[in-house]
Design brief:
The complex is a heterodimer of chains A (164) and B (247). Chain A has one domain. In chain A, 93% of the residues lie in helices and 0% in strands. Chain A contains two helices and no strands. Chain B has one domain. Chain B has a two-stranded antiparallel sheet with strand order 1-2. In chain B, strands 3-4 form a two-stranded antiparallel sheet. In chain B, β3 and β4 form a beta hairpin. In chain B, α2 packs across α3, α4 runs antiparallel to α5 and α5 runs antiparallel to α6. Chain B is globular, with a radius of gyration of 21 Å. Classes of the chains: A mainly alpha (164), B mainly alpha (247). Chains A and B meet through α1 of A and β2, α1, α2, α3 and α4 of B. Chain A: InterPro entries: ATP_synth_b/b'su_bac/chlpt, ATP_synth_F0_bsu_bac, ATP_synthase_B_chain. Chain A: GO terms for molecular function: proton-transporting ATP synthase activity, rotational mechanism; proton-transporting ATPase activity, rotational mechanism. Chain A: It comes from Candidatus Beckwithbacteria bacterium GW2011_GWB1_47_15.
Chain lengths: 164, 247
């Protein structure tokens, strides 16, 4: 077995040509596809990471907004409670005033009615006394005596009414 | 065929002047042509944006090999992948060619030195020392070229170091180591495939029909392992050469 240079050269050229053809038509396109796919994967991963970060920021904003809304709601409720308390007090006071006014009005009305009744009674009693006395004393007393007696009786009656 | 035909060297099937065209050269050409056709066909499918099972299969095989190279040398996978894959594919198909039907039975009757001689038409490409030496030269030349490309002139300091006698001697040993790698590459592959071919011929002669079947399976495995070892060692040697450490 001896090495023949031309056979060796033939095999070297054959292998070199094969390497060139495979590299040109097979390896390069496949490596290109693999690199493009890896790039797409890397981009997708980056996009997903960025989306996750954005989501986290949005969640934090949501939480913050919810906390603020809760605080605002508590404030509103407290303000409403305070306002309701004031309104209640006011309403009660107004009602009390109104009731007092009604009571006073009724009292005045009652006083006026009492005064009317008193006047009527006075008049009726006076008329009755006059009539009775005139019947009794028609013939025994002179008109001047009758008048003085009537006046003294009226005064007595007035005193008695006032004492009542 | 009444007797066994075993020849350690490839035999010429025709002559072009002084140039002898051997049976292993024919198989080398056929393997290269087959692989080139597959590559060109794949390229055409890709250009036409045709999604076929053929293109998918080819892409899957090549991508698996690319991932393998990436696992060994993650930063230079794109650079070393073509050489690794070509060595692997050429060696595996060149070795499996010994399993072709009619390997040692179809041939020519040639008259050599006045005597009629049977010359088989086909012989495994890697069962010829010229083929294995050519691939080994390609592999070891690539190791030196990549070493120089990545490390510059300082790469050769490991061979020629005149700082002191010990380093000079170590450099000498390094040169011997490079040549021994070349020789081990050549003869490991040649020895394994040639021995396999001889084994198949002998078994087919002794136990025809089903006798060689287990050995065919064994040779398929040997072909795969030899291709992987050759390509893998080339990749490792290149990886060592491009790294900054000197070994």
């Amino acid at each position: 077995m001896s090495i023949k240079w031309y056979q060796l050269l033939f095999q070297l050229v054959n292998f070199g040509v094969l390497l060139f053809i495979l590299n040109r038509f097979l390896y390069r396109p496949i490596v290109k596809i693999i690199k493009q796919r890896n790039q797409r994967l890397t981009d997708s991963l980056k996009a997903a990471e960025s989306n996750l970060k954005e989501k986290e920021v949005i969640n934090q904003l949501k939480l913050k907004a919810a906390e603020e809304a809760e605080k605002e709601a508590v404030k509103i409720i407290e303000a409403a409670k305070a306002s309701a308390k004031d309104s209640g007090k006011k309403i009660v006071e107004e009602a009390k005033d109104e009731a007092q006014r009604q009571v006073d009005k009724k009292y005045q009305l009652m006083l006026a009615k009492l005064s009317d009744q008193e006047d009527k009674i006075k008049k009726n009693v006076a008329d009755l006394v006059v009539t009775t006395t005139s019947q009794v004393l028609k013939d025994s007393l002179s008109p001047a005596e009758q008048k003085s007696i009537i006046d003294s009786q009226i005064k007595k009656l007035e005193k008695r009414l006032k004492n009542k | 065929m009444a007797e066994l035909h075993i020849s350690i060297s490839a035999e010429p099937i025709f002559n072009l002047g002084h140039f002898e065209f051997t049976n292993s050269m024919l198989v080398s050409l056929l393997v290269s042509a087959g692989l080139s056709l597959v590559a060109i066909r794949f390229y055409q499918h890709l250009k036409q944006n045709k999604k076929s099972n053929f293109a998918l299969f080819v892409a899957t095989v090549i991508e698996s090999l690319y991932e393998f190279v990436q696992s060994v040398t993650p930063h230079h996978a794109g650079k070393f992948f073509p050489l690794f894959t070509t060595i692997f594919l050429f060696v595996i198909f060149g070795s499996w060619a010994e399993l072709l039907p009619g390997l040692d039975t179809i041939g020519l009757i040639k008259v050599v030195n006045g005597q009629e001689r049977f010359v088989p038409l086909l012989r495994a490409a890697t069962a010829d020392v010229h083929t294995t030496l050519a691939i080994a030269i390609f592999a070891m030349a690539s190791v030196q070229i990549y070493g120089y490309k990545y490390q510059g002139i300082s790469y050769f300091k490991k061979f020629f170091n005149l700082t002191n006698p010990i380093n000079f001697f170590v450099g000498f040993l390094e040169i011997i180591a490079e040549f021994s790698r070349l020789i081990s590459f050549t003869f490991r592959l040649f020895g394994n495939i040639f021995a396999g071919e001889v084994l198949l011929i002998v078994i087919a002669f002794l136990l025809p029909l089903f006798g060689p079947l287990p050995f065919v399976a064994l040779e398929i495995f040997v072909g795969f392992i030899q291709a992987l070892v050759f390509a893998m060692l080339t990749l490792v040697f290149i990886n060592i050469a491009v790294s900054s450490e000197h070994h």
